[in-house]
Design goal:
With 86 residues, the protein is mainly alpha-helical. It has one domain. Helices cover 63% and strands 10% of the residues. The protein is built from three helices and two strands, in the order H-H-E-E-H. A two-stranded antiparallel sheet has the order 1-2. The longest helix is centred in the middle third of the chain and has 26 residues. It is elongated.
């Protein structure tokens, strides 16, 4: 949980790269990648869908499938917030 105390995204990135290096040296990088995909995959899909459909500042439709519209502003906001930019 120390990554939340670091002021910029370089600290958490450095910690992640270090831990990936340790996993590679220890020989369980494949297992770690599989576990990370299983745990974060559904969460990532849920966040993208919720952000794209329910973002409050939506104006421009990106994709419309039946009654569900995926909005461009929700997608762009998700991309900008995940990159660490304001």
């Amino acid at each position: 949980m120390i990554v939340f105390l670091l002021p910029n995204p370089w600290g958490p990135a450095l910690i992640a790269v270090t831990l990936l290096g340790v996993a590679a040296v220890a020989g369980f990088l494949g297992n770690l990648a599989k576990l990370a995909t299983i745990v974060t995959g559904p969460l990532l899909v849920a966040v993208v869908l919720i952000q794209g459909v329910f973002y409050p500042g939506n104006e421009t439709p990106l994709i419309a499938v039946g009654p569900v519209t995926f909005w461009e502003e929700g997608c762009l906001t998700l991309c900008w917030s995940s990159s660490g930019r304001s």
